[in-house]
Amino acid sequence: MVLGPLSDQHFADRLVSAIIRKGTPALVGLDPRAQSLPPGMLASQSPHDIAAAYQKFCCEVIDVVAPLVAAIKPQAAFFEQLGPAGCTALAEVIRYGAAKQLLVIVDGKRNDIGTTAAAYADAYLGPGDSSPWGGDALTVSPYLGDDSITPFLSTAQARGAGIFVLVKTSNPGGGRFQDLVADGLPLYRHVARFVEELADQSKGATGYGSVGAVAGATYPEQLAELRFAMPHTWLLIPGYGAQGGTAADCAAAFDDAGLGAIVNSSRGITFAYERSQYSHLAGAHWQQAVEQATRDMIAEFRTHTSAGRLPSPSGN
Amino acid sequence: MVLGPLSDQHFADRLVSAIIRKGTPALVGLDPRAQSLPPGMLASQSPHDIAAAYQKFCCEVIDVVAPLVAAIKPQAAFFEQLGPAGCTALAEVIRYGAAKQLLVIVDGKRNDIGTTAAAYADAYLGPGDSSPWGGDALTVSPYLGDDSITPFLSTAQARGAGIFVLVKTSNPGGGRFQDLVADGLPLYRHVARFVEELADQSKGATGYGSVGAVAGATYPEQLAELRFAMPHTWLLIPGYGAQGGTAADCAAAFDDAGLGAIVNSSRGITFAYERSQYSHLAGAHWQQAVEQATRDMIAEFRTHTSAGRLPSPSGN
């Protein structure tokens, strides 16, 4: 794989650097749930104590996975569920992940129009001191149309950040609207066409743009179709693991160099100790379950996808 | 107008009660912006001070409009733009509006799948002590499909709350995907059909359901079409005022009793002192500009729409 010099001011360049350094497209989703936290972590059922426990749990997960993966994806909903105390915890988790040199993709599925979209972009996009939340990227929903997405791209480009626009989501009901066929193409392909235009316009040294697309592992044929139709668009793939997608299902989402896609696993990693193969690591050893599940996911992708062509870091 | 007994446990019933009590479908949007705040309100440009100013400003707007209108609609983006301090301010603004007997529609345009959608619903839906944010309703984006919307409806129904699903948005670029024609109908009509099914299933004593739809004043023909196609669906109408829509443009969105629609004005009311006809009320008299702009909007809707058939409360 030969790449030109990568910029630390371009999101896709930064993502590629981090993935090459770690040798894996694995992305760890942080979806904390009170009922699944390790024993002893929850002082009480008050929102304040749950928020404190989410922060502690997520930061300990980050400690385990930071040497292994390129990025984390906190899910805003579970933090917002706790009210303002949860929002404070989310900001701390993002800050902690960034301090550990992880790229942080905030999963907020935000969208709005005009200056309101610009406010969301200003809120979440921009690592370091350039935004109050400090995300490297944000997920964005496309229903509101082109002028709801371009304000996010402007801010992303100015700050070396990125966005991932929902294209083909992993849930069973996603097809209700996304698969409707207009002018010979399903809706998700119309969205994909617009996203690819923006990605092409914003591409960096790797050929990938500051705009990516969300496409679920639960639809392998569509992943292959989208990889072909969106050559400049990085794919963020949910639906692996707990939702049923396998590494083989994701194989077509990668380019020949093992790049072009990042694959999320949330509870399959963070709550690995609830899965039968790691249940011997429940309780005091829960971090070992997190580490082993992460290593197993990395190995599965190296075996079954072109991600095996990424350099293998020593120790992984 | 003859209605059966209205329930205080059903969102549309509660909305109708409040609208009849105030005699207007006017909805005041709270979209605070630092550069538009009245002089002297902003202590510094720190996020903490801006958040404090947003809270103070919005609460003072609420003091003015609470006797006049049924509901307010804070825009989450402008609060989130300030990081966690803004989230705390948003929660306080919602709490203050509820204490003033206003219905609070949180404009967050949230969406996600399965248990994540349920987490957003749990976060925002439920007045009083039943949710951490305490909203009476939340705006929801439909791209993720049917199983991304039904979790919101379950929580809404259990808590006497509501949701408004984006159908035909007010922005120029909204048509990019919403107007794509599949099976003889534009996408927004497919979304409308699903929303109407849910509204019919959840209807209360007024015939309107716990699920409403967002449809912009900037598309008057589509408003008329949607009113006809969605007889059980309350319409939340943005795009009036600053975006160009008039009361006459909204007329077809109402039923014969002056019900069925609620019309938002944000900066046209909160920052009325920036408009030429109210500029004499800038500075120390900014609250008078807010009051006058609200009364002018109410009068315009009573003149140009069937909302004139609502009882006229004394003093308005």
TrEMBL record, chains A, B:
- One GO MF term attached to the UniProt entry: orotidine-5'-phosphate decarboxylase activity
- What EC number is given for this enzyme? 4.1.1.23
Which InterPro entries does the protein's record reference? Aldolase_TIM, OMPdecase_AS, OMPdecase_type-2, OMPdeCOase_dom, RibuloseP-bd_barrel
Ranges where the Orotidine 5'-phosphate decarboxylase domain occurs: 25-282
**BP term (GO), one:** 'de novo' UMP biosynthetic process
Q: Tell me which residues this entry annotates as catalytic.
A: 109
**Which PROSITE patterns does the protein's record reference?**
OMPDECASE (PS00156)
Q: Name the keywords, alphabetized.
A: Decarboxylase, Lyase, Pyrimidine biosynthesis
Q: Which Pfam families match?
A: OMPdecase (PF00215)
* Catalytic activities: orotidine 5'-phosphate + H(+) = UMP + CO2
Pathway where this protein functions: Pyrimidine metabolism; UMP biosynthesis via de novo pathway; UMP from orotate: step 2/2
Origin superkingdom: Bacteria
The record's section on HAMAP family has: OMPdecase_type2 (MF_01215)
NCBIfam families to which the protein is assigned, alphabetical: pyrF_sub2
Q: What family does the Swiss-Prot or TrEMBL record give for this protein?
A: Belongs to the OMP decarboxylase family. Type 2 subfamily.
Q: What is this protein called?
A: Orotidine 5'-phosphate decarboxylase
Recorded name of the encoding gene: pyrF
